[in-house]
Amino acid sequence: MNLTAQIAKHFRDVHFGKNWTSVNLKETLTGLTWQQATTKIYSLNTIATLVFHINYYVSAITMVLKGEPLTAHDKYSFDLTPIQSQEDWENLLNKTWNDAENFAKLIEQLPESKLGEIFSDEKYGTYYRNLHGIIEHTHYHLGQIVLIKKILLESQEK
């Protein structure tokens, strides 16, 4: 398995399972209602906002992998359109799963020689750094989602 295929697998694993940590986004979010996903716990972001935030960067890097310029801005990365129904929530999840699979396919198609090249702008480093960064970013926010979900479910049991 070449390096880009391994990176794609690592990305898929954090979204769909079989990763080293045994925690993934899809299983963690399965069964959550839109009300749970949008419930504010303390001053933390909602689960829905974190899902949007994770996928915001996946979508942005996807465009670069397709040869387009990087147009994402951090200030918009939490701008989730309000989730007001189960359908809205499921649409966000479906977009996340579809975008993740498309992203992984684009990584697989990337020549290994591209990994050492500058990604979009020198200040962002290499393709390798950005692809691993998106995986690290997903794991980081997945950890937050797991904790928020645990707090939420325990508070609903009382």
Question: Could you explain how this protein is built, in words?
Answer:
This protein is an all-alpha fold and 158 residues long. Helices cover 61% and strands 0% of the residues. Helix 1 packs antiparallel against helix 5, helix 1 (3-16) runs parallel beside helix 6 and helix 4 (47-65) packs parallel to helix 5 (86-109). The model has no long low-confidence stretch (mean pLDDT 96).
Feature tags:
single chain; 158 residues; 6 helices; mainly alpha
Mean pLDDT: 96
CATH top-level class: Mainly Alpha
Find the structural class using helix and strand composition.
mainly alpha
Order of helices and strands: HHHHHH
Which shape, going by the Cα principal axes? Answer: globular
What are the SSEs and their pairings?
Layout: H1 3-16, H2 25-29, H3 34-37, H4 47-65, H5 86-109, H6 127-157
Helix pairs in contact: 1-5, 1-6, 4-5, 4-6
Quickly describe the structure.
The protein is an all-alpha fold and about 160 residues long. It contains six helices and no strands. The protein has a single domain (about 5-155), classed as Four Helix Bundle (Hemerythrin (Met), subunit A) (Up-down Bundle).
